[in-house]
Amino acid sequence: MAYWLVKTEPADGGLLDFQAAGSASLVWDGVRNYQARNFLRAMDLKDEVLLYHASCAEIGVVAQLKVARKPYPDPLQFDPESPYFDASSNQCQPRWTAVDLALVRAFPKVALLTTLKRTPAFEGSSLTRKGSRLSVLPINKDQWRAVMTLAGG
DNA sequence: GCCAACGTTGGC
DNA sequence: GCCAACGTTGGC
Fold first, then answer.
1. Distance of A27 CA from C7 C1′ (whole Å)
2. Contact at 8 Å (CB) between A127 and A5?
3. At a CB cut-off of 8 Å and minimum separation 6, what does A135 contact?
4. Structural domains of chain A ordered from first start
5. Quick one: which of A15, A58, A70, A124 has the most CB atoms within 10 Å?
6. What digits encode the pLDDT tens for the residues A55-90?
């Protein structure tokens, strides 16, 4: 079993979107970075996922998610109308990957980035490193526990 | 709005 | 294959 963290802006696949979906899952698509894609491809149904809000007033981890569907080809790469369309991808060997994620629970508190930066478990993590643009990343058990504590979960 | 970080692109 | 230019991410 592995732990992951996925980043988003609150208005685009944020906590409100998951709460609106209820027990239904949301498609986590549009990832167009090879390192992040490789992490997506490594996701499994048993894995645990943290939801992170970026570029907003309260930057940090807001909820726990689960993997509702194993990695599959991101449909948007084949959609010419989509900004995520990739003309150089093809059906036989799709370049980009999506998963479906569903809300497990919103945390009582936001585990703020400012706090995580002072948390030893996150020292050297690409989450807290300045300028990191990685939007899907693995989390170790210590980091998971630290988030649980800070989030009041 | 600014700007640092950094991935990607394209000329050579 | 190098590297400058460019675009995007994301904290502040």
1. 26
2. yes
3. A6, A7, A8, A31, A33, A36
4. 3-151 (3.10.590.10)
5. A15
6. 999 999 999 999 999 999 999 999 988 989 998 888
Closest residue by Cα to the C1' atom of nucleotide C12? Answer: A55
List, in sequence order, every residue forming a beta bridge with A136; answer none if it has no partner.
Answer: A6
DSSP collapsed to 3 states, chain A: CCEEEEEECCCCCCHHHHHHHCCCCEEECCCCCHHHHHHHHCCCCCCEEEEEECCCCCCEEEEEEEEEEEEEECHHHHCCCCCCCCCCCCCCCCCCEEEEEEEEEEEEEEEEHHHHCCCHHHCCCCCCCCCCCCCEEEECHHHHHHHHHHCCC
Q: What are the tokens at A137?
A: 């990343």
For the CA of A33 and the C1' of C2, the distance in angstroms is: 23
Q: Tell me which of A52-56, A99-103, A128-132, A142-146 is least confident.
A: A128-132
What does R_g of chain A's alpha carbons equal in angstroms? 15
